[in-house]
Amino acid sequence: MARMKFLCDSERCIECNGCVTACKNANETEWGIQRRRVVTLDDGEVGKEVSISVACMHCTDAPCMAVCPTDCFYPTEDGLILHNKDACIGCGYCLYACPFGAPQFPQQGAFGARGKMDKCTFCAGGPESDPVLEEQKYGANRLREGKLPLCAEMCSTKALLAGDAQQVADIFRERVVYRGHRNSAWGSADHEADQSEQLAKNAADLAYDATQSV
Amino acid sequence: MEKSRSRTSVGFWLVMLLVGCMFSLPVVAQSQGADARREALQSMPGTTPDFWRDAAGGVSGRTTSQSVGADTLIMTEGERWKEIRNEWISPGGLLALGGSLTGITFFYLLVGRVKLEHPRTGKRIERWTRWDRVIHWYVATLFIILALTGLSILYAKWFLMPILPTSLWSAWMIAAKNIHNYLGPLFSLGVLVMIVKWIKHNFFNLVDLKWFIKGGGIVGKGHPSAGYLNGGEKVWFWMIVFVGLTVAVSGLVLDFPNFGQTRETMQLFLIIHAVSSLVLMAAAFGHIYIGTLGTEGAFEGMKTGYVDESWAKQHHDLWYEEVTQKQNKS
Amino acid sequence: MRLHKKVSDSSLDSQSANRLGVSRRGFLKGTSLAAGGIAATGLLGKTMIRPTQAATPKSSAPVEIKRTICSHCSVGCGVYAHVQNGVWTYQEAAFDNPINKGAHCAKGAALRYHGHSTRRLKYPMKLENGQWKKLSWEQAINEVGDKIEQIRAESGPDSVFWLGSAKFNNEQAYLFRKMVSLWGTNNVEHQARICHSTTVAGVANTWGYGAMTNSYNDMQNSRSMLFIGSNAAEAHPVSMQHVLIAKERNNCKIVVADPRFTRTAAKANQYVRIRPGSDVAYVWGLLWHIFANGWEDKQYLAQRVYGMDEIREEIKQFPPEVVQDITGVDEQTMYQTAKLLSDNRPGCVVWCMGGTQHTTGNNNTRAYCILELALGNIGKSGGGANIFRGHDNVQGATDFGVLSDSLPGYYGLADGAWKHWAGVWGVDFEWIQNRFDQTEYRGGKPMNTNGITVSRWVDGVLEDKEKMAQNDNIRAMFYWGHAVNSQTRGPEMREAMKKLDMMVIVDPYPTVAAVMNDRTDGVYLLPACTQFETYGSVTASNRSIQWRSKVIEPHFESKPDHEIMYLLAKKVGIEEQVFKNIAINGNEPLIEDIVREYNRGMWTIGYTGQSPERLKYHQENWHAFDFTSLRAVGTDAHGDFYGLPWPCWGTAEMKHPGTHVLYDTSLPVKDGGLGFRANFGVERNGQTLLAEGSAPVGNEIGDGHPEFTAAMLQQLGWWDDLTDAEKTAAEGKDWKTDLSGGIQRVAIKHGCAPFGNGKARTVVWTFPDAIPKHREPLYTTRRDLVAKYPTWDDFESLYRMPTLYKTIQDRDTSAEFPIILTSGRLVEYEGGGDETRSNPWLAELQQDMFVEINPFNANTLRIADGDDVWVYGPEGGRVRVKAMVTNRVDRDVAFMPFHFGGEFQGEDLRKRYPAGSDPYVLGEAVNTVTTYGYDPVTLMQETKCTVCRIEKAA
Ligand code: SF4
Ligand code: SF4
Ligand code: SF4
Ligand code: SF4
Fold it and tell me: Does domain C196-391 have CATH number 3.40.228.10?
């Protein structure tokens, strides 16, 4: 059984927002709803700036699911956390629990009027049997067609990877090996030799972690 | 005989409710250990240790997304909130409500109803004006509705969802949330009016102290003296002032997210709101019990506005004297 | 008990399965509606006013898959468009396109919305008494045609200015130049003038062709890269895929030299902050270390480069202290960079507007070339001058001469060039001559002199006509796919617009020109369609030509540009000449015929082998081309480079594969090898200008040689290799003018490049500065350097216009305007942004125009992040924008993006757009505060280095 995961390689992500608009393109979420976003930390700080693309991580033991009063989240066989909009009451709890700010709401109105929560579906649609209706409500179901998420497919630098956790981790590990092995920069500045060895080691550890998805 | 049967049946239901609470405790309290750090490690590997310190520490960056809190990569508070809510408040609330019910049940089974010591004289004394009653029932009704809808939001997925067909379940939950959100502000308004209207009766005095010493009549012999309102009623009033207002204010913060509240603010107020309203509910059980089952003749006061002379003498002797003196004078 | 059991039943897994099952039956439609109803009554918060956007009606109709190319930048990313019932319903990643491998930046990934946009120009309109009035196409063309005919009669053909577009496909670009030429003027331009004109001039004058010498893909082979004045991560995001692969696989070292710490800099091994406008000094500083340490490629210099000794002399003036004073970079950093670039070869230098858009632009670009020559990087795979072009087809539009200084193919404007093209067009040369104003002005006849440039049309309107080298001022302007807000000196532009007799805007969107003009009459809007509503070829920055298929039919009443050209040509009575060799379907000229026509004339740069059939074949076989080498493996295109990057010599029958890496001597010419072009003569000051001991593999001459002519073939005894037909055609001609292609064929047969085998030159004796010089910007905060590095004296006439230098620089503004202002790109928007700001998927991401200010300045000026501020320019313009407080810029620099428009000095122009066609996001244009300043070779505008003052807005 495949377990789907995202992986954003910050050594490659250039904050081009391609993934963000690719998601719009695939899912046509309305103005203000960005299932994916790119966050740049230490913006403008030489040698420190890092950009990362985030959406729903489809967490194991998802916190959103744990706090949802109507239990509208459900895990799929692929390890995705999907969401039933019919049962969603727009309480916002998932947003308050989610570590990654993934849940999005069409409004933040008085009387807690938020509309139905919308979040990344890993381009796997949602609980609706009619495909046209499904698409209107949840966006594209690419997985069903054997395609992977559009955000990752369109990533300008192939920083964002999506797919089976194992495969994704393999691709990443290969990159790490290149970078680490060749003593190349890991991080933005050129590191001293000893430091870069340490970093290469960290990298290898990280690559290992990336494979350890349950 | 009839009386005792009704007592047993009431007792039975109280016990069942209690049992329900107990059984659901483990379910509600089941811990779900998600780990943002692990998720993050898997999905954003690489980068320097510095970055990790920042990201996991919730340091915010820049983003083009306009959503609330979008500039924070990883919000660590969410997990704490989830834990507090799911592992402390949910079971804690059940314990509080259950505890309150248990207390009342035992009290009822042991002590039973406080009866009128003297037969009714038939003379009726006005205790609550029409406006008093209107405001009481206005607040009380909303309180019950809000409690039920609020409890649904906190607990119903453990009780209702498994037994309702999904469509009904969703319909109920959507209704519950909207009812709660639209009526909440009206409740707050009522509470405010009530407080303003009744505050003058509610300052504590020496009589209340004695009333407390006698435990409202449970300790020792003879009914303690009380004025228009006894010490217990005043305590309830001040609970409404402090806890009730907390519920109301925190509720309003939650109900109007359109002022750009951060997620952290919302988490905090959700906790405050849940804790305070659960406390209020637990206390309200007592109030309801005393005002209905627990005290013969109390309910009619709030129902009709009038109480029987005997009741007044028994429970609020000082007030009774005051009222009769006034009447005599005139 | 029941309760308990039920509850435990709903433990996660079984529960989910359950719920999924139940939900799939499609219950609950009523409840969600009810909830929606209630929710909708909630008040909207202030940040929640959400524009509506068109949603695609999805269906299960059969899917047609079309291959097209992103229209937003010169990377040229491939796109799969899925069309159902004529609606563009999906966009898929083109994993097999060899340039992007499916990748897109924000713009490319949002491309599909253009197929749905409602904020377009929907029908022809004109401004009458301040109101937009709908017109029929016929009426619009008639009125516009009558007006230009009237102006032609009164003031001559040069009073109509034809501002074309890099958004044209190649065929439209070529047709536009041809049409305007036959209208009788050289006042025809497009955005290349304000984009890479200084590159084209500087680079072509260094080694022959003014284009990127290799490709994005070839950068995968680089071992070092110097980005100077390029922010590829935001301007050419998909190029970064190749860059980062090089960094990963090749341990390629990346240096970014930029006044601003950009997203590209964040990926660099070394970031160097330089002062805006100090590029030449910076490069000289690098060369100082390279020469001091003997790191230059001596053999390469001896064999292939002319004049490096003169450069050495110049560089002596730039020891580390001097360089540090001018650029702000210390000796150690300079040394490190120089060593890094020397140790890691082949390497490339990447530059964009940061290098070109300066008064000293041509000096900058030549300095970069000289650096690459010294390192011996040019003509090697993995090395090169990576000139990242801007618009999707700015390379093609440049090649096709939508510029005032040349006919298509860089033939120039001399009579010979006109005769060559008259021959290709089958139009009588005298007839063409008669279309022109025959008066001699300063510098010559308008037919043979450079026209006014796009950067100066404002002056062309406002200047005293006695001082201009043409009959009258510009009286009518065509803005045919142009964003006026990308041009400097906004307030003066507004004046010029007011003075014009007529403005004609031909564009899918109304553009800023439609609203900033302050007119009440005489503005026409003609709706052109986008490149997805027509088809044709487009040249990416790497010279690869990609074919686009039509995705959807033109929206509303819009028409493809070439159809509008036909209508206009017909109206002014020149359609017979313009379309002599081109079939017309209805009113639409046949694209393939246009390709075939230019195939017959574009010999100079080898746009001759790319027949429509070959181009389409490449389009259909994306998968066959290698991601690194761009070479096809298998299929009928086996051995071709993707898109037949020019020069693709000879005729299509010759099957030249195109030239992937220019000047690469390790390949035979027939397989894409070349030496440097011998374009500057054979000898100067007693030194040869031909290559010495270096030639492409298989070159039978084995050494340098001049360009091929018929006479040379005879001398070499290769004349008889020509067929008889070729002989007739070639007689008296050379490789550029022989319409049979025979001369090229025979030269290549003998392993020789038709354009000769010369040396690159470091000294361009025909330019104002033969050797690139550091000159202080016209507006500088370093007044102390002005005396030592002054700008030029004023020129009496450049491109028909008097042009000021010293007069401007002499005014000291440094006290009042202490901060250097520079401008640049955002990844979400393109150019003037009219199109991208009308795409909600993009507009949502950048809703406010802003200025980047260093925290030091912000604190001093008491400005907080997100505050409104006024930015004042020294020529009187001012803009109200949001402050972004960031360390991306240093204390002495402020930065603004240039894609905004629709607000003008605090005034909101939204109401001036025709109803329903206003972009989602408006903002002040940075160019309202930018200032005077033009490169003396090309009249490139100065946008990267002016000065400003910032104040908190009340
Ligand atoms: S919404 Fe948040 S908490 Fe839920 S699965 Fe996605 S990332 Fe995890
Ligand atoms: S997986 Fe699909 S839904 Fe999720 S962010 Fe990517 S494109 Fe959007
Ligand atoms: S598309 Fe790729 S490189 Fe661009 S922002 Fe998204 S993850 Fe980063
Ligand atoms: S704008 Fe350029 S980099 Fe972005 S998708 Fe289009 S062609 Fe590719």
Answer: yes
